[in-house]
User: Fold these one by one.
Assistant:
Number 1:
Amino acid sequence: MEANQMIDVKLSKKSIGLKDFSAWDKFEGEGCVNIFIGKVKPKNKDRNVIYLDFEVYESMALSKMKEIAKNAKKKFEIDKILMIHRIGKVSTGEIPVIIAVSAARRRPAIQACQYLIDTLKAVVPIWKKEVYDNGEEWVSAHP
Amino acid sequence: MILKILIFGLAKDLIGSNNFEITVKDFITVKEFKDILKLKYPKLKKISSFMIAVNTKYAKDSQKINQKDEIAIIPPTNGG
């Protein structure tokens, strides 16, 4: 991430983790970084989850992620935003999404992080299929 | 005009493909297009609601669709 690039959004076909925002160590002057890390649950409604399969409308997803990050920068007193979301199969225990927000103060960083994950779920064109040991289901995409 | 449509998520499973082409009148609105979809693919009624994206942006019902536009059916999203 360039020093002057305050918003960084990515889609990844490979595993993601804390290493993906190590570049932030080089920045100075920030008071805190708030990080949300999603994990794939091993169980959902008593069914054993083997993996999630994320389908992504890539061009639109990147554009919407940038849009909501820009909105967050307008709404909250924050500095930088990093959002990374996986594409394809993500196994139980792996990380499907990371959102990190830096700011001078903790409250706007925490609020912005919550806004970003909630809004990502609602508007970014990503769909989650849960694959169980006895079937599969699109999550929250039911009548 | 012929439109090329992208389909995702549960809508893809209900229609049985991740894309299709459809012939419609010129300058059709998004609302008219949605009505045609529901007639042609009644299984889409199983989804509580779906949005249409035109050129990677959510479109309002009144928006006109042009032949070269990239159209996508967007069922309720659920990333994260």
Number 2:
Amino acid sequence: MEFNKDELKGILSELGLVLTFIAVITAVTMVLMA
Amino acid sequence: MKTQRHATSLEIICFYTGFVVYCMSLLMIIPLLTAIVYQEWNPALDFLVGISGSLIFGLTLMIFGHGVQGSKSDFHWKHGFAVAALSWLFLTFLCAIPYRLSGHNPSWLNSMFDVMSGFTTTGLVLTQDLDHLSNALNMWRHMLTFIGGQGMVVLALTFLVKEARGAYKMYVGEGKDIELLPSMKGTAGQIWKISLIYLVLGTALLWVTGIAIGLRPDSAFLHALYIFESAWSTGGFAPNTQNIMYYHSVVYETITILIFILGSFNFGLHYAMWHKNRRELTKNIETRSFFITSSLISVLAVLGLSKLSVYPDALSAFRRVVYNVLSAHTTTGFGSIYARQFAREWGDFGIFLMVIAMLIGGSACSTAGGFKGLRVGIVFKGLLMDIKKLLSPERNLRSYTYHHIKNQVLDDAVIKSSALIILCYVVLMTIGTLLGAYYGYPLSESAFESASVAGNVGLSIGVTTPDMPTLMKIYYIFAMYLGRLEFLSVFSLLGSIGGGLRHLWKRTSKLSYSA
């Protein structure tokens, strides 16, 4: 199974976007509960 | 000149169903090896019986349909659907053999319930005393949910030496319909590649976190592997009764959120992202739909529960409310509160929001269930299209599109088929709700559990227990099966059986008339 640089960038983009979503939803929760 | 004979429909269906069963039975070798490593001799024997039974059954079917090889076979859509639907049915029984023999399930029905729950990545459990299961059975439970998420037909296709005729039809029959590469074997290979790379990354991350929170390294590894398999396949199984609460760690919980959200994405989306099409994640109609609906439901749930003063601070609201909403929306089913807390603490507003989240589900052609963000997006866009058409002076001249991997035309046929599938899910959930109400469960609890089953989620409000009525267990098995295969394969199988019986009836009547 080959694994190249583009695929690694793809994984990092996916992880980055989902982590951003989790961070945003956490921030919204903090605001709502403040 | 010798003419090639045509294989019959029965031969085609038997051969390929047998092949899928054969491939799955070989996988039982992994829990068997686990049993040997951990010196669990009784479970090893259970798996030996399971492997033998499945191999004999699979090979018998293949021998019965061996006429397919070397003959002309016209592989129609009905064959593909029948192979997918029958493989799932037969395997539900065969894979239940080690469950039944383990002593943790008092009946075949309970064993088959848990296997169907694993295959369909639902995650509801009837197996008793989860905390004392053998390593072999735990390995098997989590493998079932991982393989179920990928699809058994997808698995079998990767074993094929060369491209099979009708491979695409079998693949679609399993509720997946995206061609990543021109060949189906190549597409199946890509699906496995994506999942296996995330398996290595996710397991490593959970393993390190497990050690950091105090688990023994070997135990942390097994927990990491099981939890990854469950999270990625949006299954919801865990190796203990407390589910995700067992770990008492916000970091562990956050990693699982990351994995189950990624698992709920379309394999086509992963493939696009990995092949330089990075904007797909923000452009795709179903990821947009997921981000909007999950954020909206999370916000409403936090607002509703803060009004009831159930959770005192933001951290507990995130860990108990947002976590469960995201788990429900991705149809994972990991629970960060006990089942009865939904009934006692969340109130009707919270329960209703969870029902909506569970029914919407994740992405099409992913490991997730529900009626899918893609269909929600299409129906919503279709509604906007109709309103625009009414207000626009050009009326029907303008064409509308939506973006899902590529730009696609939004026409009435697409909207109608999406709306029909959504309707089927709502009917499936409504029947389950009525059945629960008939047996005396409160309506909201019955609706919660029924949505969890129809959407292949696995969160429970306490209805699913070993002593629930038998009819409800049977209906839940059927609903999980229908929900996972997205109706088409099962309806097609039932249609084929009905057509076959009618044909047989006509032939018998004709023979008796002429006699």
